[in-house]
Every structure is written in structure tokens, then in C-alpha cells.
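@channel sequence for tomorrow's demo:
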Amino acid sequence: MAQIPNLDNSPLNLKSLREQSQKDLVKILKDIRGKKCLVIEPKLGGSLSLIIQTSLLKEYGIELRHLSAEPVQTDCTKVVYLVPSQRDLMKSISSHVHDDISKGLQREYYIYFVPRREIQCERILEEEKVHHLITIGEYPLYIVPVDEDILSFELDLAYKQCQVDGDTGSLWHIAKAIHKLESTFGVIPNVRAKGKASVLVSDILDRMHTEEPMNSSDMALSEINTLILIDREVDMVTPMCSQLTYEGLLDEFLRINNGSVELDSSIMGVQQEGKKMKVPLNSSDKLFKEIRDLNFEVVVQVLRQKATSMKQDYTEMTTTNQTVSELKDFVKKLNSLPEMTRHINLAQHLSTFTSKPSFLAKLDMEHTIIEASSYDICFDYIEEMIHKQEPLVNVLRLLILFSVTNSGLPKKHFDYLRRELLHSYGFEHMATLNNLEKAGLLKKQESKSNWLTVKRALQLVVEDTDTANPNDIAYVFSGYAPLSIRLVQHAVRSGWRAMEEILKLLPGPHTETKRLGFASSPSFATLQGASNGLDKIADGRRCLVLVVFVGGVTFAEIAALRFLSAQEGMAYDLIIGTTKMVNGHSLVETFFETIG
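C-alpha cells (generated this afternoon):
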């Protein structure tokens, strides 16, 4: 099964976006004649694996290498570096060039910055006295389609850079990515933004429109009706909770990276001692598409039913005479056997984690924190975790959840837990705690928490959630409805004006704008319900809403959005844009910094 996702069923023509990125890269490589060695920064290599097959690159006579501190081993006289605009990487490249010169090797060097060149990087190349030896260009990869309804801007550190470093460069990148979408699919008439960073992205986007106005035909043919921008800062409760959908749990325990997980081959029933294998996870796998967004409890039942039905078919095959068409149907079913085996193996492996008492106790504690009814029980639980020296990231994840729902901790408790953390895990983690405090995720309480008001008003806790036949998005966390998706739900159903007071209780400003030149287009105010006939584009497709998460989104939130989109009476298809796919662990880890 290909790692490159199949985009045929996408509500937008994402295939054309991907093909354009392929063409851009191939053009860069074709323009450099002769044999060449392409040196790719490893993380960027992961993103490219969703865009282009490596076999295709090799057809152009290209040797592939990953960038590291070690000199590039190749016989090629042309070395092409494909790297993000990161200053630390310039040192590595400079040392490669110096190393070649010291060995008397004569090579041509090219650096293609992704998505654009930056002066600071070039300055380092000048300081290292190699700039004049290098041809510099850009590979404008702003968007990577991760699946048929997910676009990633591949900005791993966006949230931390904005919140801690005060670096808003990633916001320009997000606006540029959306602007590129608009140049292909038309200007988006309605924009809603919640949170400081999101409002900034909306402003930058408006500025881009003024500087590079689109022609009137682009404005008439908008395929995306509305853009909703949401800051991760607005809802840091959701990513700190353990996701309970199948795909969410796979990410929690095995880390999904560029649409696949890497694990021991023995888990997948392949007996090769110590060998790792990559298992692709995208909607090209029909069974995965069917079960990815279900609560994990239900997935186990579905797989059991499918296996039982296959077993019955097999028994019938061997004990009765079958017609040719019955044989054909059975063989068709057999084709899905590899997918069945794959997911039974994965689900069995996940069960070894989800059945542990420690995991169940943690889920209980998360729900207790969200209920916000037993402060002391939660405090004691976290204190005990620290004393048991449980992994620091696990402790911080629960502590952030506790701090965010309480609007910080009383000074006495804050100082005490901070001291205990440094004693238990070492003073080198002081910088990490400072980063979390600067981002407002772990802080002293300065005002009364409004979490209870928000929780009630948005019905974030849903009692007796039926995970098998859900009627609410709360099924993705077995009883907690992700706050971020409740905001989207309200934006789509009745607009945000009706919930103005609640929005004010959440971090950051909010804006709703209608782009100039769209006075006649159906706005959200008139786009309610499926009955008024305005919910279809001329060719019968549903209106499209692009929901962009500035700072990352979890698989559980995406499952909740897909659930919303599939509801009866829902007039929209939803497509998701994100700086990166995240979970609580990966998000907390971006704040990690050790002193010394």
C-alpha cells in the first residue's frame, strides 16, 4: 500500500496541489544538468514522502542522502541541498563545503530553501565564507496534503515560537499557504478567527489581498465558502486529554508520522528479529477509513464481527457447492484480508496499553480535572506522580490540564510543585518550566477560573455518551466534547454572534469578516440548514468550510469534525488545515529545553 495518500475522494482538488509541488521539485532537479546528489533535511524528507515517490526521483539520475553533520559521501560533482530555512543547518552545510575544499574536491553546490530563502541563513553562509560558492533558490512547498481532507503546513514549532519566542514568522507562512489555496480555488468570502495568532493570520491574509489583488473571475468561483481560524491557545484542554479514537490512540502510543507508524515487525506478525516496519495509515486503506474515527472500544467489536463473518463464509465455501458468482464474491472478500490482518494486529497491540490499570486511572483523573469538582484529589494525584518519578512529559501534560482549567494554581501550590519537579527531575528542566509559564500553560493563579461557566455553556461534559451509536462529538473522548470543535459547531450552525459572551471568556480576540466584493454571496447568516437551497454549489456539491488550527490539531478533533460533517442537516463539507498533527506529548515536548 502506498505511503502517498489517495486524494481522489477529496472535497477539493488536492491532487492538483500535490501535482504542482511534484512539478516544481522535478523542474528544480531537471534544470541542474547531469548526475547529482540530493541532500534532504530528514524531517523535510518525511513531508516529501507524502508528495513524491523516491523511485520517481531516482529516475532522474539522483542519489538521495539525508543531511547530517557528517560530510556527504558521493561521486557526484553536483550537490543539491533541500532544506528548511533554519540557521543551525547552515553550519552543517558550510562544514561540508570546507571539508570538500580541504580534500581538493571540486563540486557545484546548490541550496534550495523550503518554502523560501531567509536573509539570516544567507548571512551565516557569508560569515562561513561559502556563500559565493553556492547557487541559492527556493522550493515553495507551503502545503502538504496528508489525507483527502487534511492539509498540513508542516510547522512543528509554530505554537512554541509564537507563545514563547515571540516569533510570528510561522503566521506569515500560514497566511501564504491559505493565499496559495485561494489562487487555485478562489477567494474565500467569509472569515472567522478566534485567538491572537488567528486574528493576525486573518490580517496578514487581508494585506496579501491588497498587495496582490485577485482578478474578478477568481472571486466569482470560490470553492471554499468560509475559513474558520482557531488558535491552539484557545483550547489547550483538548490536546492534553488522552484521545480515545482508533487513530488517536495509535498516535498516542505509536506516534503517527507523515501518515504511517513504525513498529517492530513481530507486532505485525512478520518474524524478522529486531526489524522495524512502516505501516501506512490513510484513507487508501478502506478498512482504516471505516474505523479510524470510531471510539477504540467499538473498533474491537467491528473487527471481531468482520472476522466472524469471514470465517462463516469460509465454512460455507468448504461445505456447500457454490455458484461461480458466489465464488467471485468470496474472492472479493478475501482481497480485504491483508487489511483485516493489519488492523487486528494493531488493535491487539493497542489493547496491551489501554487495558493497563495505570492508563485507566489516568483517564479517570483527566475526567476529574475536566469536571473541576475535586481540586485536592487532582493535586494529590499529580504530586504522587512526581514522587514516583513518572515520565516528565506525562506529569506535565496532566499538570497543564490542571493549570489551564483552574486558570493557574494558587501561588503556594505553584511554588511547591515547581520545586518538587526540579528536585525530582533535575534543575536542568528549569528552562522547560519557564517556557510553559511564559506560554501561560503552567502559571500562578491571578484571577478566578471561568472554566465551569465555559464547560456548562458549551456542554463540554456529556453524561452517558454512547460510543457505539454516538449522537454527539463527545464520543471521541468518551464523555468530553472538544472545546475547539464545539466552537466550529456553533460557527457553522448559528454563527458566533449568538455566543459572543462565551467567546470573550476564552483566550484572545475574535473577528468575523466578509471580504469586499462578496456582498451578494450567501453568507453564514443565510446558509443555515439544508432546506434553503443555498447550501449547494451549482454542480450539486455541498459548500466547503476550511477549518485551520494555528498551533496544531489532534486526530480526535479531526474525528469529531468528520462526525459533524456526516450529520443529517449539516450543509457543509469540512476540510482541515493545520500547522502540524499533534498530541499532548508532541505539543509539550516542543517546550522542552534543558539548561547546560
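heads up for whoever presents: The chain has 25 helices and 14 strands.
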